[in-house]
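Researcher: Here's the sequence for the chain we discussed earlier.
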Amino acid sequence: MSNLRFLSEPATVAVVGCPFSGGQPRAGVDEGPIRLVQAGLVDQLKELGWKVTFDGHHQFEENNDLDDPPIGKLKNPRTVSRVTRSVARVVGGHAKNGTLPVTLGGDHSLAMGTISGTLDAFADACVVWVDAHADINTTETTHSGNIHGMPVSFLLGLGSKEEEFSWIKPALKPERLVYIGLRDIEAGEKKILRDNNIKAFSMHEVDKHGIGKIVEMALDHVNPNRDLPIHLSFDVDALDPTVAPSTGTPVRGGLTFREGHYICEAIYETGLLVALDLMEVNPSLANAADVEKTVAVGCSLVRAALGETLL
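Model: Thanks. This is the structure I predict for it:
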């Protein structure tokens, strides 16, 4: 069924549920994966022709701030490290088996784990990061200490390295990373993006060129010969809050419903997808109708990235 060239037959998706919220302060984002699965995502993927494995949500020990005092500015560092390391092992194991890991978050600190796992299986993989935020603060530049705003800097090996995260091998190279949808970037992050020559397409570029051209330009940068594996890490706050209201850090002026889906469809069409993250659905925020809307969008983004077409 699949046109994805790096997968084994029969084409299999491993749904990795990560009900984890330790990378940021707002409760509820740990409910995101549970709601996505309750909404029928597993069966929806089977209807697309995939074999799907889902062995329940990963059980993470309760966050207990008393047990996990800050290291410098970093909040919950031991918990985040332990969880992301276990996620890296799970995702890497699936990727090495020729299975497509679809990780449902939880907060975006989890990408430290998912992308580490992908790079363990595919050292030359590139990352398409779709988000309102760059998530590239370092231990020095972070104001909040919330690690969900920092996973990219850990993956790139930027800033001073806390011992707690020494397991992360900075295997991601700046030229293998591209952003789409940015619109809320701190001054320190802008400097990091410039200093490391990291390609980023903000909403200004999306407005200027249109999403079709943007995806083409993004892929031309990270995957010019269209031969490298792709890890797509999608934060639902990349979408405009009118489309996906139930998320922890919504920012006006985001991607439309169709722009978000087009990115997923176009990545699938390359045949190069090896891992997918869908992060930051928070069902505790907004009213019931908005939660339902956000969960439905989350499910349809995953389906689009796994081959669902309009015709």
